[in-house]
Amino acid sequence: MKSKLRSRRWLRYVTGGTAALVALTFATMSATAASASSSGGIPLANPFGYKYGYKAALAELPKLYQGTSTKVNTTPRPAAKNKNIVIISAGQASISSSVPVDAAAAAAKAIGWKVTILDGKLEPSTYGGLVSQAIALGAQGIVLDGIDCDQVRGPLLQAKARHIGVVPIYAYDCNDPTESAGSPLFSEVENFNNLPDKELGYFAESYGRGQADYIIAASHNKAKVLVLNDPEYTVLKYTAAGFDDQIKHSGGSQVVYTQNFLAADLGPKLEQEIQADLLRYPQINWIKSPYTYATILGVVPALSAYAKGTYSVMGGEGFQPELADIQAGTVTAAMAISSQWVGWAAIDALNSYFTHKPVYPSGIGWELVDATHNLPANGILVPRENYQAAYLKAWGIKK
């Protein structure tokens, strides 16, 4: 849906060096973003060649509906035997964590590993202690879900000293330019959407740009957006930066206000903040949610007092509750990403660490879902790629 993808840099989508011009011509507005710029201090790069402007956004829609996922690379890489791993979830109460964490556990069990899940309960103050607990449990590998390296640097240094493999799910290493917390401490990183290994920021930024293009196209480039963001998670910094840059250079749409919040605010507090923002900025006609849990606990309740269609909503990762809201007309669209697939890719990366093999491309991408495209009748979106069978084949496991 983490990032966040660094040496944890998720690609930089750039402004093309034209900011100094007195006026931006239409050609500039639709030009591909160059490299080496930034948005709010977040480095941008544009790995997928998104272009700016309304016409470019319209042209991008068929690609987003088709989806950007490819296939798992099935190069043989036999599974390591008899491993003991611990998966640390940022908070199992959040579907944005529980889905990839449970999938990673299922993948590890399919290999034959012993698996323990530790729950951070959305309390960042507990994360370091959970890494220490994993070490005490004799973990040979640790998977961190939504927990950035800088939050647990001390315990990760201990894990590295003990040669414990560490792999992230939607999390970023200590040398990410947004963190500058020292040398990298992750052992391996999933290879997202066939981007170079460890370029997590590229993937997250591109995801945000795709969300922006949908809003630009659907609003006829007249969107006035309330952006919701949870800056506790580095992945969301990259996603928001890509989104903001794409909107900023659209030549019509605008981010009116960004409402930052914390996971602890999910529920009535976030709902009230959204309602206050809508009163303060009556020009708002679109709301961008950072992830599914914020959509269902903040956005949808906040809009319950308004007639359907008063505000359009871009959801998060497209988990079942958001897809149900699209069916109900309370959410407009979601950029769906298979977090189950991400969980399996994390275990593949950890297996590569154990077996000293390269991390092969996962093929993970996303696809746009709205009321008329890709919306499954049962509310559960299943990737076209049978990634589980592909990984089992690569690992040499017959089921």
Q: How does this structure look, described?
A:
The chain has 399 residues and is α/β, with parallel strands linked by helices. It folds into two domains: 26-70 and 200-336, Response regulator (Rossmann fold, 3-Layer(aba) Sandwich), CATH 3.40.50; 84-196 and 339-366, Rossmann fold. Helix content is 37%, strand content 14%. The protein has helices at residues 26-29, 54-66, 95-111, 127-136, 153-161, 200-218, 234-248, 268-280, 292-302, 320-328, 339-355, 387-395, and strands spanning 37-39, 42-44, 84-89, 114-119, 141-145, 165-169, 224-229, 254-260, 286-288, 312-314, 333-336, 367-370. The strands form four sheets. A four-stranded parallel sheet has the order 4-3-5-6, sandwiched between helices. Strands 8-7-9-10 form a four-stranded parallel sheet, with helices on both faces. A two-stranded antiparallel ribbon has the order 1-2. Helix 2 (54-66) packs across helix 6 (200-218) and helix 8 (268-280) packs across helix 9 (292-302). The chain starts with 25 loop residues before the first helix and ends with a helix.
Largest sheet: 4 strands, parallel
Rg over alpha carbons: 20 Å
Q: Per CATH, which architecture of the largest domain? A: 3-Layer(aba) Sandwich
The top level CATH class name of the largest domain? Alpha Beta
Tell me the total number of β-strands: 12
- Output the CATH homologous superfamily of the largest domain: Response regulator
Tell me the number of helical segments per DSSP (H or I, 4 or more residues long). Answer: 12
Q: How large a portion of the residues is in β-strands, by DSSP E? A: 5-15%
Main sheet: strand order: 4-3-5-6
Q: Report how far the terminal alpha carbons are from each other.
A: 29 Å
Number of domains: 2
User: Residue share in helices?
Assistant: 25-40%
